[in-house]
From TrEMBL, chain A:
Residues 1-28 are annotated as: Disordered. Belongs to the binding-protein-dependent transport system permease family. MalFG subfamily. It is found in: Cell membrane. Residues 95-286 form the ABC transmembrane type-1 domain. Its main location: membrane. This is Arabinogalactan oligomer/maltooligosaccharide transport system permease protein. Pfam families: BPD_transp_1. The keyword Membrane applies. Keywords: Cell membrane, Membrane, Sugar transport, Transmembrane, Transmembrane helix, Transport. It comes from Streptomyces rishiriensis. Residues 1-14 have a biased composition (Polar residues). It comes from the Bacteria.
TrEMBL record, chain B:
Belongs to the binding-protein-dependent transport system permease family. PROSITE patterns: ABC_TM1. It comes from Streptomyces rishiriensis. It is found in: Cell membrane. This is Arabinogalactan oligomer/maltooligosaccharide transport system permease protein. The lineage of its organism: Bacteria, Bacillati, Actinomycetota, Actinomycetes, Kitasatosporales.
Length: 301, 334
């Protein structure tokens, strides 16, 4: 409903502004105002882009100290760093670990969080408020509180240095926020749809799976995106719980790369760029839904 | 908009339903709740097993003197049993008012508060400004939005890495400052500039989330409110003050709370920017991690005790925050 109100207002004001001396439409800027807006947005965009673009640029310099005199890179740009990283390091092992852990977390996290988000959105069961409070408090757990005991527990279960162990750990951070996010999204889906489903003889589960889930795709995309990014860029747990270097995730791999090949900053830069690519691709795939999802549900009350 | 708020609080549901008799109500209630409990069961189980149990265990550890030398461990084929002992609240006493408590805890505590307040203020301020700009009818705003969200899309450890190149002694930032004949600080060595750099990088990472959330909130404000305000002759500032800000209230209170929680616990930025090289720029979370995993012997008990203290601070803060919101009749979107 939110986006439609914004859109319908445009034709309304257009009709009104058909009076001979055309008044400035609402939301339309004066020339100076729109120049200023563009100016600020361009500056902000440059600031947002620059560190990433700079990293890409540095990764093309063949020598280790090129980042100190970047002007020289322009004349001797090469993809040598990339070929070296792909051929002579464990990049693909790390990529595999990252994908296993990240996709596992995303799938499990979204699935579990979706039913919960639906339940807290539609049903007022006793203990509802306390449950929401627990979801919020779980957001607050600093790494240090859980890491030590989790390390002990996982090593008792022999899940240290194991993908599944890491997925479980990530689920604890990812699920509460996803459930929260999805609750917000489900709130925006008209309750009449549930009622229609019930009239047609569907159980709440049936309503949820056959009517609500298909409608909630943008919300699910946002949750998936959040889960993916959290799992993909987590460092503390991954570097503590993954011990053998062929099971490192990319985040840990890059760290180990830093200490082992400290002088070869050009290679590190290339690795960093290679790592950013899957995330950027994933982001591109969900971005259409991302804004709709966050706009409609997300954090709205 | 009002409809949406009512839905979130569930009031409308209650009003709308026909009132059945007590027996029917009980039966229906049971039916409904049965489904609800089944649906939240997976999360309840996951949280119970993976959060509650470790939490209790961690709480117990804080009452002992466990470290990596006296906990149970397996070296090769030999299993060594745990030898740590129960010492009560000594860890907390030592952290809070033991000798050198100021250097170990309170200085980090103060810096953590400053860090959180500054970062969240910058996130919110810049995020709101950009969201307002993007909410206008503007050529190319989709492209702007896409670019501005980018810092969020790239994993933190990659961006922080890029920033380290830029902030290095001979990096682009200092070269640029030199070229402008400005002093070029030692970003990664000097305490003040380390802190400055950490805030700068974290702001860069955190603005997109605020911007997108607030943009969502802005688009949810009913356009007719603006038209009404305009007809009443409200100036741009008055429209912002009396329509936009109240309309953003529930979004704001939620994202600010989340922002505070996340920034307070922000591990990656400081850890990756400095590693263990900057004791004075560590916030409590990274400091606790350092105690538990960054030194030898690893001090598990103290690390966990820091964690519990952090959690306590956040819970107390959130309780007050919610009470304050309730007094102002604002909604937290949960």
């Amino acid at each position: 409903m939110t986006s439609t109100t914004a859109e319908t207002s445009a034709p309304l004001s257009e009709q009104r502004s058909k009076t001979p001396r055309r008044a400035r439409r609402r939301g339309e800027n004066t020339l100076a105002g729109s120049l200023a807006s563009h100016g600020i947005l361009i500056v902000a965009s440059v600031i947002a882009l620059f560190p990433i673009a700079w990293l890409v640029y540095l990764s093309l310099g063949p020598d280790t100290d090129d980042y100190l005199h970047p002007g020289g890179i322009w004349d001797k740009m090469t993809f040598d760093n990339y070929t070296f990283v792909l051929q002579h390091t464990q990049f693909f092992d790390w990529l595999k670990s990252s994908l296993v852990v990240t996709l596992g977390t995303t799938a499990i996290g979204v699935l579990i969080a979706a039913t919960t988000g639906y339940a807290v959105s539609r049903m007022r069961f006793p203990g509802y408020k306390k449950f929401m409070w627990v979801l919020l408090v779980t957001q607050m757990f600093p790494v240090a509180v859980l890491m030590v005991p989790m390390y002990q527990i996982l090593s008792d279960l022999q899940l240290i240095d194991n993908y599944f162990g890491l997925i479980l750990v990530y689920c604890t951070t990812v699920i509460p926020y996803s459930a929260w996010l999805l609750k917000g999204y489900f709130d925006t889906i008209p309750f009449e749809i549930d009622e229609a489903g019930r009239v047609d003889g569907l159980t709440p589960f049936g309503t949820f799976f056959r009517l609500i889930l298909p409608l909630a795709k943008p919300g699910l995309a946002v949750a998936a995106f959040y889960n993916f990014l959290t799992a993909f860029s987590e460092v503390a747990f991954a570097s503590t719980f993954m011990l053998s270097d062929d099971k490192y995730t990319l985040a840990v791999g890059l760290q180990s790369f830093v200490s082992e090949h400290d002088a070869q900053r050009n290679l590190m830069a290339a690795t960093a760029v290679l790592i950013a690519i899957p995330a950027a691709v994933f982001f591109y795939l969900v971005q259409k839904n991302l804004v709709t999802g966050l706009t409609a549900g997300g954090t709205k009350g | 908009m009002t409809v949406a708020i009512d839905r979130a609080t569930g009031k409308r549901r209650g009003d709308r339903e026909p009132k059945p008799g007590p027996a029917g109500r009980l039966r229906r209630g049971y039916q409904k709740h049965w489904y609800a409990y089944v649906m939240i069961a997976p999360v309840a189980v996951v949280l119970g097993v993976l959060v509650l149990y470790p939490l209790v265990y961690g709480l117990y550890l804080t009452l002992t003197d466990a470290n990596s030398l006296n906990t149970a461990r397996t070296i090769g084929v030999n299993h060594i049993d745990a030898t740590y002992k129960f010492i009560g609240l000594d860890n907390y006493a030592d952290i809070l008012w033991g000798p050198t408590a100021y250097d170990r805890f309170w200085s980090h505590f103060i810096w953590t508060i400053v860090w959180t307040a500054t970062c969240v203020a910058l996130h919110y301020g810049i995020g709101l400004g950009l969201a307002l700009l993007l909410n206008q009818k503007l050529r190319g705003r989709t492209l702007y939005r896409l670019i501005l969200v980018l810092p969020w899309a790239v994993p933190t450890f990659v961006t922080v890495f890029g920033w380290r190149f830029m902030l290095a002694d001979g990096g682009i930032i200092n070269s640029a400052l030199d070229a402008l004949h400005l002093p070029s600080p030692q970003w990664l060595e000097d305490t003040f500039w380390q802190r400055f750099a950490a805030i700068m990088v974290n702001t860069w990472c955190g603005v997109p989330f605020m911007m997108i959330s607030l943009l969502g909130g802005l688009q949810a404000i009913d356009a007719s409110l603006y038209e009404a305000a305009e007809m009443d002759g409200a100036s741009a500032w008055q429209r912002f003050r009396f329509v936009t800000l109240p309309g953003l209230r529930s979004v704001s209170s939620t994202v600010v709370l989340l922002g505070i929680i996340w920034t307070f616990n922000q591990f990656a930025v400081i850890f990756l920017l400095f590693g263990n090289t900057a004791p004075d720029a560590q916030i409590l979370v990274t400091w606790a991690y350092y105690l538990g995993f960054g030194q030898q012997p690893r001090d598990f008990a103290q690390s966990a005790a820091y964690g519990i203290l952090l959690l306590a601070i956040l819970i107390v803060f959130t309780s007050f925050y919610r009470r304050w919101l309730n007094r102002n009749e604002q909604q937290l979107a949960i």
